[in-house]
Amino acid sequence: MKTIDKTVRVLDALTETNGARVAELADRLEMPNSTVHAHLAALKRHGFVRSSGDHYALGLKFLFYGGAVLYGNSEYSLLDSKVTMLAEETGERAQFITEQNGRGFYLYAETESDTAVQTDVRMGKIVDLHPTAAGKAILAHLPRERVDEIIDQYGLDAYTEHTITDRDELLAELDRIRERGYSVNDEERIPKQMAIGVPVLDKLGEVVGAFSVSGPAHRIRNEEHRARIISLLLGTANEVELNLVYQ
């Protein structure tokens, strides 16, 4: 198990640095050069790492597994076209996030307009749940004990001055989200950016993930634009949920 943990740490470091040399990774991870090199060599043999000279980076083998996750899950297969439609209809960036191990994973993200904001979002990006609209929509539909576990494990870090960092305040916000059917991220992860999210529930009422639409705060605050986004999100989630019932 210790060997697996070290391998994962090496992969995480390669991701964070967008590739690095053995010595750089060894310094970052506080491991001997020989240990890091042994893990890299094993990963390279299996296609998880590639190298150019003494520089190492993630390999394409991860795309094989990522594709298997997305296209081997019947629930996820319904989502790609819906995210694209939301981006086209709103002129903003749209995305779908799911939760695993208490973190949010971007499965799909799309921008179909020159006016849509380009940020750090990409497929596979991992984020905390509490500062995002989709993440809060997910938290609002998880059992309370699970929410407490996530908070205990990851905390409530402040990303901006508007991030909710108090447990009771967040729990109260989750209650409001359940009541009105959608969540709002009002400059809570990125300054001057606002997002609206809605959950997608399966036939058992368990949360599959959440759609969200995000853009400049001044634009999302426009009452007419915001109302249209909420309507589109709720309609899209409802359509996906109906499809999930009859799968």
Report on the structure:
This protein has 247 residues and is α+β, with helices and mostly antiparallel strands. The chain has ten helices and nine strands. It has helices at residues 2-17, 22-29, 33-45, 61-71, 80-90, 133-139, 144-154, 167-180, 217-220, 223-245, and strands spanning 20-21, 49-52, 55-58, 93-100, 103-111, 126-127, 183-186, 193-201, 207-216. The strands form two sheets. It has a six-stranded antiparallel beta sheet, with helices on both faces. Strands 1-3-2 form a three-stranded antiparallel beta sheet. Strand 2 and strand 3 (55-58) form a beta hairpin. Helix 2 (22-29) packs across helix 3 (33-45) and helix 5 (80-90) runs antiparallel to helix 10. The longest helix has 23 residues, at 223-245. The radius of gyration is 20 Å and the shape is globular. It starts with a helix and ends with a helix.
List keywords for this structure.
247 residues; alpha+beta; 6-stranded antiparallel sheet; 3-stranded antiparallel sheet; 10 helices; globular
